[in-house]
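Weekly structure sync - notes
Attendees: PM, LS, DV (DV joined late)
Agenda: review two folding runs queued last week.

Item 1: First target. Sequence and structure tokens pasted below for the record.
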Amino acid sequence: MSAFATVRRASAIANRLFVVWVLLFSGIALLYPPAFTWIDPYITPLLGVIMLGMGMTLQPADLQRLLERPRDVAIGALTQWLVMPVAAYGLTVVLSVPPSLALGIVLVGAAPGGTASNVMAYLGDGDVALSVAITTVTTIAAPLVMPAWVIFLVGEQLSVTFAALFGSIVQVVLVPVIAGATLRYVLDRRAPGVATKSVDIFPLLSVAAIVAIVAAVVAMSKSTILTVGAVVLLAVVVHNAIGLGTGYGVGRLTGMSEARSRTCAFEVGLQNSGLAVALATAHFSPAVALPAALFSVWHNVTGPALASYFSSSHQSSPSPVTADD
């Protein structure tokens, strides 16, 4: 077996057992925090690696899809932008979540869609092209939308400004994504074999980076987890359920096909929690990052579970992955 084939196989295994790795290393982090607290200064660069990998998956055809289906892209993006931040804030009030943790929950709610939604759309017989289009739009708009919601909902608790949040998101999201997309464009034309191998390798790097980020946050938040971890977990579980359910419901109510409604569910319910972690550790505290770390674990449980349910459902239309109805 060639070295590349070995890496590709390792990447597939890492993706399939993602939740296992997160739970395993998070458990180790709780038992022995010093094993992971040293990662703290590297959380933002690690997220940059993840976003670079996302950019590597984008091609000119993906931008063309934005023009081909503006209505459904707009519905998916608007639903995420409206439902998740408002639901996050509402849960912090209803559950009387402590201020620092409430800020973390709002950060998750205001985050754009994550690449996990694209994978789940594929596995759940959704419309992958639409998924990529919505993720692209919410990611590109994140430097404006995310700080706006955070300042609006919890601005009185913050010492950080809109400009500071905007600058951080541009650096850790927009720049790496654009760099990745540019690199893919160049490689596709000059070294297509290298481009293919790069796209296969980046999932392994992304899994390793996410596991490291979550373990670091758990290690730095041990005391918080032991005292108020239950209420934060409850908020995360309900928040994720609201996103998945509302996304699917809005899709059906607006006349989307079954495949596109499934995609909308994943796009609304699965957030870029890694971005929320990076912003929390850069501008606030490990406690603020805790809800995002827990969300990262939980949505990688519910996402595959829902995708499995969708894929086994007899109500799905033929060939829904590339449906263009």
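Item 2: Second target, run right after the first with the same settings.
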Amino acid sequence: MKSTFFILAASMLLWGQPAFAEPSRPNVIVIMADDLGYGDVSCYGATTLQTPNIDRLAAEGQRFTSGYSSASTCTPTRFSFLTGVYAFRQKGTGIAPPNAPAVIKPGTVTLPSLLQQAGYQTAVIGKWHLGLGGPEGPDWNGDLKPGPLEIGFDECFLLPTTNDRVPQVFVENHRVRGLDPTDPLWVGDRAPSDDHPTGITHRHTLRMDWSHGHNGTIHNGIGRIGFYTGGRAARFRDEDLADAWVKRSIEWIESNQHRPFFLFFASHDLHVPRMPHERFQGKTSLGFRGDAIVELDWCVGEVLNTLDRLNLASNTLVVFCSDNGPVLDDGYKDDAVEKSGDHQPSGPFRGGKYSIFEGGTRTPFITRWVGRIPAGVSDEVVCTVDLAASLASLTETPLPTDACLDSFDLLDVLLGKAGAKGRDHLVQQDNGQAGNFGLRAGAWKLHQSVRGKSKANGKTNTNEKNQFQLFHLVDDPAESTNVAAQHPDVVQRLSLQLQRIITEGRSRRAD
């Protein structure tokens, strides 16, 4: 007995930690692409270009064929990803304008706050587009709060909106980085003066012309949504966005390598205006959109190489996903349509960004944890909204009953455990709360549309009030044949299920 005691004591002295210490919890990195479609990467069938680093993730982990974002535009998906709540449940979760206040309020239980509770260092680097500041909106020349630091992130280095919206500055924690106080930043929704150069008045000066919208203030030869003046020293060059975020991410990983960390790497590469760094321009036959995919793949490779260099790959769960499906012409004349050729951004699916068809929300979704997740392909249904509950489960963090109301614990599925089951249903939405929903339940997909307009495959469609369409995804993955008339019982059952999910205010069981 004494010998056992001395062995244990010696072990404690030798390793400098308790002999019965819990094993270290894995780091977590979520890489969220922007406007990346199911068919945009080679491991999901793209042949016009190659994405070797994303392919490596898939080869070393689980590649999901039914991985989804919860919405077909960016702000609602990001809201749901961080809160575990369908965005249609909260007003103001549509595409956020430049001066939008913080969409997620302080005190909300979020994925990063749950991981903070578990002892993780947390950071978001990249595109934010969830608003900043109080009810009056952001104070661009003062403290930009509330923001990420008030909902669970320890650090942030952000593009505050999207790069087609003003302003073109970085936000570092609570301040605009590099802002000269003698050149204050002003942001508005109307031109500040009659002589303010815009994409309309000075269209001849643009180096990337606009096709619709995107004709407000000009920066870097590109028109934007909205208007701004000042902040000259703080403005960035479009071509340098990916490099800046990769550099900052590597530095942050290095500084936190000896403790559990959570990094939300929010890429912007495919979102308009597509202006990849010069070293990627011309790398594909698809124009700047294809070049931006190659740039995104490089970003993924730099993160993976950092984990390898620091010997962190076997202790890091990497999740790769997208905020919504693809779009070609999204407001700029960048040859995305003209040079698309045989490339199918949505793969075998119909629709894309802004649409409740599968192409709007079914996207690449990959998990990798070297030594823990087996390599393989999974047909189980998983969604970005489920990462909150699943990562809380991974870290054994209690999930409050009144939080993450639509987030399911799918940890076993994400880890590739044999026999684990994914979702049996999923609600998909477009941008707003008008009532355009898709409900996938097993092999069936119900569309509920309200009177108004929606987009699919680049075309605007007029929908009748409470119009239902029904598709059998196994037989018809492209959603080309509406079989609602042939299966009225299924339409009734699924429409009642959808209405119940909407009205009950939650879909995660309280127990």
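Discussion on item 2: The mean pLDDT is 93.
Action: LS to circulate a short write-up before next sync.
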